[in-house]
Amino acid sequence: MSNLNITFLGLGTMGYPMAGYLSKAGYKVSVYNRTKSKSDSWISNYSGKAFDTPRDAVNNADIVFACVGNDKDIRDICLGDNGAFGSMKNGSIFVDHTTASANIARELNSIAMDRGLSFIDAPVSGGQAGAENGKLTVMAGGNEAVFNKVKDVISSYAQAVTLMGSVGSGQLTKMVNQICIAGLLQGLSEGINFAKLSGLNIEQVVEVISKGAAGSWQMQNRGITMGKGEFNFGFATEWMHKDLQICIEESRKNSANLPITKIIDKFYANLIENGHNRLDTSSLIKLL
Questions:
Q1: Tens-digit pLDDT profile for residues 213-242
Q2: Does the predicted model carry a pTM greater than 0.90?
Q3: Same domain for 244 and 196
Q4: Is 49 tagged catalytic?
Q5: Which of 24, 38, 149, 174 is catalytic?
Q6: What is the three-state SS of 99-124?
Q7: Total of domains in the chain
Q8: pLDDT of 62-85, one tens digit each?
Protein backbone atom coordinates (compact mmCIF):
# COMPACT_ATOMS: atom_id res chain seq x y z
CA MET A 1 0.00 0.00 0.00
CA SER A 2 2.86 2.41 0.70
CA ASN A 3 3.67 2.30 -3.02
CA LEU A 4 0.50 4.25 -3.74
CA ASN A 5 0.88 7.79 -5.02
CA ILE A 6 -1.34 10.05 -2.93
CA THR A 7 -2.30 13.67 -3.49
CA PHE A 8 -3.91 15.91 -0.87
CA LEU A 9 -5.60 19.13 -2.03
CA GLY A 10 -6.24 21.72 0.68
CA LEU A 11 -3.96 22.19 3.68
CA GLY A 12 -6.23 24.09 6.02
CA THR A 13 -6.90 23.39 9.69
CA MET A 14 -8.05 19.87 8.85
CA GLY A 15 -6.15 18.98 5.69
CA TYR A 16 -2.70 19.92 6.96
CA PRO A 17 -2.53 17.24 9.70
CA MET A 18 -4.52 14.71 7.65
CA ALA A 19 -1.96 14.90 4.83
CA GLY A 20 0.74 14.68 7.47
CA TYR A 21 -0.58 11.35 8.72
CA LEU A 22 -0.53 10.00 5.18
CA SER A 23 3.12 10.99 4.86
CA LYS A 24 3.99 9.44 8.22
CA ALA A 25 2.23 6.24 7.14
CA GLY A 26 4.77 5.92 4.34
CA TYR A 27 2.71 6.95 1.33
CA LYS A 28 4.21 9.03 -1.47
CA VAL A 29 2.35 12.29 -0.89
CA SER A 30 1.96 15.32 -3.13
CA VAL A 31 0.15 18.40 -1.83
CA TYR A 32 -1.48 21.56 -3.12
CA ASN A 33 -2.83 24.55 -1.26
CA ARG A 34 -4.21 27.79 -2.65
CA THR A 35 -1.95 29.77 -0.31
CA LYS A 36 1.52 28.53 -1.23
CA SER A 37 3.06 29.34 2.16
CA LYS A 38 0.94 26.55 3.68
CA SER A 39 2.40 24.06 1.20
CA ASP A 40 5.91 25.29 1.96
CA SER A 41 5.27 24.87 5.68
CA TRP A 42 3.89 21.36 5.18
CA ILE A 43 6.92 20.31 3.12
CA SER A 44 9.23 21.56 5.87
CA ASN A 45 7.49 19.25 8.37
CA TYR A 46 6.67 16.17 6.29
CA SER A 47 8.08 14.10 3.45
CA GLY A 48 6.43 14.87 0.13
CA LYS A 49 6.23 17.23 -2.83
CA ALA A 50 4.31 20.48 -3.26
CA PHE A 51 2.76 21.70 -6.52
CA ASP A 52 1.38 25.04 -7.70
CA THR A 53 -1.89 23.75 -9.18
CA PRO A 54 -4.30 20.86 -8.53
CA ARG A 55 -3.76 19.68 -12.11
CA ASP A 56 -0.01 19.28 -11.55
CA ALA A 57 -0.39 17.77 -8.08
CA VAL A 58 -2.64 14.90 -9.19
CA ASN A 59 -0.80 14.00 -12.40
CA ASN A 60 0.43 10.58 -11.19
CA ALA A 61 -1.90 9.99 -8.24
CA ASP A 62 -3.68 6.72 -7.50
CA ILE A 63 -5.89 8.42 -4.89
CA VAL A 64 -6.62 12.13 -4.59
CA PHE A 65 -7.97 13.56 -1.33
CA ALA A 66 -9.46 17.02 -0.96
CA CYS A 67 -10.59 19.03 2.05
CA VAL A 68 -11.64 22.58 1.17
CA GLY A 69 -14.34 25.05 2.17
CA ASN A 70 -17.62 24.62 0.32
CA ASP A 71 -19.39 23.58 -2.88
CA LYS A 72 -17.76 26.30 -4.98
CA ASP A 73 -14.29 25.46 -3.67
CA ILE A 74 -14.56 21.75 -4.38
CA ARG A 75 -16.06 22.38 -7.83
CA ASP A 76 -13.21 24.77 -8.67
CA ILE A 77 -10.50 22.41 -7.45
CA CYS A 78 -11.97 19.58 -9.53
CA LEU A 79 -13.21 21.37 -12.65
CA GLY A 80 -11.46 24.77 -12.78
CA ASP A 81 -8.92 25.78 -15.42
CA ASN A 82 -6.22 23.92 -13.47
CA GLY A 83 -8.60 21.43 -11.90
CA ALA A 84 -7.74 17.94 -10.75
CA PHE A 85 -10.15 16.11 -13.07
CA GLY A 86 -8.24 17.45 -16.05
CA SER A 87 -5.17 15.32 -15.42
CA MET A 88 -6.14 12.46 -13.09
CA LYS A 89 -5.22 9.13 -14.65
CA ASN A 90 -7.85 6.64 -15.73
CA GLY A 91 -9.02 4.44 -12.86
CA SER A 92 -7.83 6.75 -10.09
CA ILE A 93 -10.04 7.70 -7.16
CA PHE A 94 -11.08 11.12 -5.86
CA VAL A 95 -12.08 11.27 -2.17
CA ASP A 96 -13.74 14.49 -1.03
CA HIS A 97 -13.50 15.25 2.69
CA THR A 98 -15.12 18.67 2.29
CA THR A 99 -18.38 19.19 4.15
CA ALA A 100 -20.54 20.18 1.19
CA SER A 101 -23.95 19.44 -0.30
CA ALA A 102 -25.12 16.04 -1.48
CA ASN A 103 -25.85 17.69 -4.83
CA ILE A 104 -22.24 18.63 -5.53
CA ALA A 105 -21.15 15.11 -4.58
CA ARG A 106 -23.56 13.62 -7.13
CA GLU A 107 -22.56 16.17 -9.76
CA LEU A 108 -18.85 15.49 -9.38
CA ASN A 109 -19.43 11.73 -9.27
CA SER A 110 -21.27 11.87 -12.60
CA ILE A 111 -18.48 13.89 -14.23
CA ALA A 112 -15.81 11.63 -12.72
CA MET A 113 -17.48 8.51 -14.10
CA ASP A 114 -17.63 10.05 -17.57
CA ARG A 115 -13.85 10.58 -17.36
CA GLY A 116 -13.00 7.08 -16.16
CA LEU A 117 -12.53 8.15 -12.53
CA SER A 118 -14.16 7.06 -9.26
CA PHE A 119 -15.57 9.43 -6.63
CA ILE A 120 -16.25 9.06 -2.92
CA ASP A 121 -17.83 11.76 -0.75
CA ALA A 122 -16.34 11.39 2.72
CA PRO A 123 -16.97 14.30 5.12
CA VAL A 124 -15.36 14.04 8.53
CA SER A 125 -16.30 14.71 12.14
CA GLY A 126 -13.97 15.35 15.05
CA GLY A 127 -12.82 18.88 14.39
CA GLN A 128 -9.31 20.23 14.62
CA ALA A 129 -8.41 18.02 17.58
CA GLY A 130 -9.58 14.92 15.75
CA ALA A 131 -7.50 15.80 12.70
CA GLU A 132 -4.38 16.58 14.73
CA ASN A 133 -4.71 13.38 16.77
CA GLY A 134 -5.57 11.15 13.81
CA LYS A 135 -8.94 10.29 15.40
CA LEU A 136 -11.48 11.53 12.88
CA THR A 137 -14.77 9.84 12.10
CA VAL A 138 -15.38 9.51 8.36
CA MET A 139 -18.82 8.92 6.82
CA ALA A 140 -18.64 7.95 3.16
CA GLY A 141 -20.86 7.63 0.13
CA GLY A 142 -20.02 5.72 -3.03
CA ASN A 143 -19.40 2.36 -4.65
CA GLU A 144 -18.50 -0.33 -2.12
CA ALA A 145 -15.63 -1.77 -4.13
CA VAL A 146 -14.08 1.68 -4.57
CA PHE A 147 -14.62 2.45 -0.88
CA ASN A 148 -12.78 -0.72 0.10
CA LYS A 149 -9.77 0.44 -1.91
CA VAL A 150 -9.45 3.68 0.07
CA LYS A 151 -10.68 2.65 3.53
CA ASP A 152 -7.31 1.56 4.90
CA VAL A 153 -5.60 4.67 3.54
CA ILE A 154 -8.18 6.91 5.22
CA SER A 155 -7.60 4.99 8.45
CA SER A 156 -4.18 6.67 8.61
CA TYR A 157 -5.97 9.65 10.20
CA ALA A 158 -9.36 8.24 11.22
CA GLN A 159 -10.60 6.04 14.05
CA ALA A 160 -13.79 5.09 12.19
CA VAL A 161 -14.46 4.91 8.45
CA THR A 162 -17.96 3.80 7.43
CA LEU A 163 -19.73 3.48 4.07
CA MET A 164 -23.23 4.92 4.49
CA GLY A 165 -24.62 4.22 1.02
CA SER A 166 -24.40 5.58 -2.50
CA VAL A 167 -22.70 8.86 -3.45
CA GLY A 168 -24.16 11.71 -1.39
CA SER A 169 -24.89 9.50 1.62
CA GLY A 170 -21.72 10.66 3.38
CA GLN A 171 -22.79 14.29 3.08
CA LEU A 172 -26.32 13.51 4.24
CA THR A 173 -24.93 11.70 7.30
CA LYS A 174 -22.70 14.68 8.08
CA MET A 175 -25.83 16.87 7.98
CA VAL A 176 -27.42 14.65 10.63
CA ASN A 177 -24.23 15.03 12.68
CA GLN A 178 -24.32 18.83 12.52
CA ILE A 179 -28.04 19.02 13.30
CA CYS A 180 -27.47 16.95 16.45
CA ILE A 181 -24.41 18.94 17.53
CA ALA A 182 -26.20 22.28 17.11
CA GLY A 183 -29.02 21.18 19.41
CA LEU A 184 -26.57 19.78 21.97
CA LEU A 185 -24.56 23.00 22.08
CA GLN A 186 -27.59 25.21 22.57
CA GLY A 187 -28.86 23.01 25.38
CA LEU A 188 -25.40 22.95 26.96
CA SER A 189 -25.15 26.74 26.67
CA GLU A 190 -28.44 27.22 28.47
CA GLY A 191 -27.54 24.66 31.13
CA ILE A 192 -24.09 26.13 31.88
CA ASN A 193 -25.53 29.65 31.96
CA PHE A 194 -28.27 28.48 34.34
CA ALA A 195 -25.65 26.87 36.59
CA LYS A 196 -23.53 30.04 36.69
CA LEU A 197 -26.51 32.22 37.59
CA SER A 198 -27.40 29.74 40.32
CA GLY A 199 -23.95 30.07 41.89
CA LEU A 200 -22.94 26.47 41.20
CA ASN A 201 -19.37 25.29 40.61
CA ILE A 202 -19.28 24.66 36.85
CA GLU A 203 -16.49 22.08 36.95
CA GLN A 204 -18.34 20.13 39.63
CA VAL A 205 -21.62 20.35 37.71
CA VAL A 206 -20.02 19.05 34.53
CA GLU A 207 -18.21 16.29 36.41
CA VAL A 208 -21.46 15.06 37.97
CA ILE A 209 -23.96 15.31 35.13
CA SER A 210 -21.57 14.12 32.42
CA LYS A 211 -21.70 10.71 34.10
CA GLY A 212 -25.46 10.51 33.62
CA ALA A 213 -28.05 10.78 30.86
CA ALA A 214 -27.01 14.36 29.96
CA GLY A 215 -23.43 13.34 29.17
CA SER A 216 -21.97 14.02 25.72
CA TRP A 217 -18.67 14.73 23.96
CA GLN A 218 -19.62 18.39 23.86
CA MET A 219 -20.23 18.49 27.60
CA GLN A 220 -16.99 16.74 28.48
CA ASN A 221 -14.87 18.80 26.08
CA ARG A 222 -16.61 22.18 26.04
CA GLY A 223 -18.67 22.48 29.23
CA ILE A 224 -15.90 23.82 31.47
CA THR A 225 -14.39 26.10 28.81
CA MET A 226 -17.83 27.55 28.11
CA GLY A 227 -18.15 28.36 31.79
CA LYS A 228 -14.78 30.14 31.65
CA GLY A 229 -15.66 32.04 28.49
CA GLU A 230 -12.87 30.38 26.48
CA PHE A 231 -13.66 29.94 22.78
CA ASN A 232 -10.41 30.37 20.86
CA PHE A 233 -10.11 26.81 19.57
CA GLY A 234 -11.99 24.06 17.80
CA PHE A 235 -14.66 24.29 15.11
CA ALA A 236 -15.39 27.90 14.08
CA THR A 237 -18.89 29.39 14.14
CA GLU A 238 -18.63 30.41 10.48
CA TRP A 239 -18.05 26.78 9.52
CA MET A 240 -21.04 25.60 11.54
CA HIS A 241 -23.23 28.31 10.01
CA LYS A 242 -22.18 27.14 6.54
CA ASP A 243 -22.94 23.52 7.47
CA LEU A 244 -26.35 24.31 8.94
CA GLN A 245 -27.28 26.26 5.81
CA ILE A 246 -26.56 23.07 3.84
CA CYS A 247 -28.80 21.11 6.24
CA ILE A 248 -31.64 23.61 5.91
CA GLU A 249 -31.38 23.64 2.12
CA GLU A 250 -31.52 19.82 2.05
CA SER A 251 -34.54 19.84 4.35
CA ARG A 252 -36.47 21.76 1.70
CA LYS A 253 -35.94 18.78 -0.62
CA ASN A 254 -36.74 15.93 1.77
CA SER A 255 -39.42 17.84 3.73
CA ALA A 256 -37.63 17.34 7.06
CA ASN A 257 -38.82 19.71 9.79
CA LEU A 258 -35.86 21.49 11.44
CA PRO A 259 -37.38 24.15 13.74
CA ILE A 260 -34.60 24.14 16.35
CA THR A 261 -31.81 23.92 13.78
CA LYS A 262 -33.16 27.01 12.00
CA ILE A 263 -33.24 28.97 15.27
CA ILE A 264 -29.71 27.97 16.23
CA ASP A 265 -28.46 28.81 12.73
CA LYS A 266 -29.75 32.35 13.28
CA PHE A 267 -27.86 32.44 16.59
CA TYR A 268 -24.65 31.56 14.74
CA ALA A 269 -25.41 34.25 12.16
CA ASN A 270 -25.75 36.72 15.06
CA LEU A 271 -22.35 35.73 16.44
CA ILE A 272 -20.77 36.14 13.00
CA GLU A 273 -22.38 39.57 12.52
CA ASN A 274 -20.80 40.63 15.81
CA GLY A 275 -17.31 39.61 14.71
CA HIS A 276 -17.19 36.20 16.43
CA ASN A 277 -16.92 34.15 13.23
CA ARG A 278 -13.69 32.42 14.28
CA LEU A 279 -14.74 31.51 17.82
CA ASP A 280 -15.54 27.89 18.64
CA THR A 281 -19.11 26.69 18.12
CA SER A 282 -19.57 26.54 21.90
CA SER A 283 -19.57 30.39 21.88
CA LEU A 284 -23.38 30.16 21.56
CA ILE A 285 -23.38 30.82 25.31
CA LYS A 286 -22.20 34.40 24.64
CA LEU A 287 -25.71 35.21 23.36
CA LEU A 288 -27.12 34.40 26.81
A1: 999 999 999 999 999 999 998 799 999 999
A2: yes
A3: yes
A4: no
A5: 174
A6: CCCHHHHHHHHHHHHHCCCEEEECCE
A7: 2
A8: 999 999 999 999 999 999 999 999
